[in-house]
Amino acid sequence: MAVTSRTLHTGRRIWSRNRQVQRTAHALLYGAALILGALAMYALIGALIGRINVLIDDIRYGYPRTMHVQAFVGHGEEAGQPTHLIAMNLDRQVVVLELPGGDPSRVRSIAGPYLFGADEHLTPVIIGVSDVDGDTLPDLLLDIRRERIVYLNREGEFRLPTPEEQARLAKTALP
After folding, report:
1. Partners of 151 in the beta sheet?
2. Quick check: 64 and 89 in contact, CB under 8 A?
3. What is the pLDDT of residues 109-165, one digit of tens each?
4. In the chain, where are the structural domains located?
């Protein structure tokens, strides 16, 4: 039997190529796991911050969301008592109760806007009084989600402005 020489391949190249593919695959899987972990943390922190904001609003405004203010607005205040204004978000319907001169027997209800959207029943209604039209009578201001609604103080009650009054208010609000 004749012996012939033959070069035998040990498979080093194949092994080193497989090792590079494995390293690349491990790096990609590690990177994907980091990205998914970061997204999960982002979602968790966002949900936690949202819950904390709701809790703060629960403490500040109660449920249903309610805020009140007392002011002299010229409605039945002959006895020297200020008018009491209460703004509420009653299951997405904004309602303002006015007690002229603090007298609960003469309560007036002012219907505000209906709030649309998810979790709007948790939106606080910020109430204030200020003379926005320059007639020396304080007007009613509602701030809801960074939108301001003005109720003008006319003839002993609060009402929404007419289109002409809205145009005049828009002109005076511009610098």
Report:
1. 140
2. yes
3. 988 889 888 888 888 899 999 888 888 889 899 998 888 888 998 888 888 888 888
4. 14-61, 66-173
